[in-house]
Design a protein that fits this description.
alpha/beta; 7 strands
Length: 312
């Protein structure tokens, strides 16, 4: 008999052939459920490998949730956080160190301004020839948009103090934002020759007495004055200051210039406005503070005038 032979089919596709455990049930989409356990195991391995790799490349000491931070956050955000963070409280040693730095800086500023170690009062000449040397050069205009007042700086001959050195300090005082230019109207410019609106003159006590006395003022060999176009600065005060500024000669020099230039600008004497408040620059602080605090500027840092009751 000729038997009809069945076609040779792969075992997996033979009709009626059952897999071990019965026919496989298929999910929608045609995939066998038996394939999923293998895929799940592979996914676990891939995920574990990724985590391991991430752990290797992550910078040491950085939290995992910060791994994706952008450079802007890392450089800008953390910097801002450092700026906003409160400064640690200084220890006693830290405070003493800061105080030493402050004193050192002050000494350097005094040295630059020509206010180094105080001379022996007996070594300061009480009189001079009454002739003056004018600081050469000139300065830039400083101050408001109103009238510009020109001035020269002069030093009496024989004092051994360079006029240019004094001029530098006077310029610094008149250019300060707390000075008379804070009103936005008056301006100053130093010149070295020709006509000028006023003169700042550093002189011995005897010469100051002579020049101020010509206008009926008695400076008694001790104080400064403004007469006519002359701002007369007593050498003794310039070098020694007063009891209230004994440790801050540079500041007292600013008070001299601001007070006497204030007179030239038309300001009269003022009194203490109240205990604990800053003394007006037009107050005669050499005669006492009367409860006020020392102050050498006509305006404060916010541009507000520091004034007191008028004194006749």
């Amino acid at each position: 008999m000729n038997e009809r032979r069945r076609p040779n089919l792969p075992p997996s596709s033979a009709p009626g052939r059952r897999r071990r455990g019965g026919r496989a049930r298929r999910r929608p989409g045609g995939r066998s459920r038996l394939l999923w356990p293998g895929l799940a195991a592979g996914a676990v391995l891939v995920l574990a490998g990724g985590l391991a790799l991430k752990g290797v490349t992550e910078p040491a000491g950085r939290p995992a949730d910060a791994a994706g931070a952008s450079p802007a956050t890392e450089t800008g955000g953390t910097e801002e956080a450092r700026k906003d963070a409160p400064e640690p409280e200084k220890t006693e040693d830290g405070k003493r160190g800061a105080e030493k730095k402050k004193k050192k800086k002050k000494k350097e500023e005094d040295k630059e301004a020509g206010a180094g170690e105080k001379p022996d009062p007996d070594s300061i000449p009480s009189s001079g020839p009454g002739t003056f040397a004018t600081a050469d050069g000139g300065g830039d205009r400083v101050g408001g948009s109103g009238r510009t007042l020109t001035y020269v700086v002069q030093v009496e001959d024989g004092l051994g103090i360079p006029a240019r050195e004094v001029a530098t300090e006077v310029e610094r005082v008149l250019a300060d934002e707390r000075g008379w230019t804070a009103d936005g109207k008056v301006g100053f410019r130093r010149v070295s020759g020709g006509a000028s609106d006023f003169r700042v003159r550093l002189a011995t006590a005897g010469t100051v007495d002579d020049i101020c006395g010509q206008y009926g003022l008695d400076t008694g060999g001790e104080v400064n004055c403004n007469v006519g176009q002359d701002v007369m600065v007593n050498l003794k005060r310039w070098l020694l200051a007063t009891q209230y500024y004994a440790d801050d000669v540079t500041s007292y020099r600013a008070l001299i210039i601001n007070h006497e230039v204030g007179h030239f600008l038309g300001h009269g004497h003022e009194g203490c406005p109240g205990a604990g408040r800053p003394a007006p620059v037009m107050m005669q602080q050499i005669k006492g503070l009367h409860g006020c605090r020392t102050n050498v500027w006509p305006y404060d840092a916010d541009g507000r005038p520091i004034t007191g009751p008028a004194v006749g």
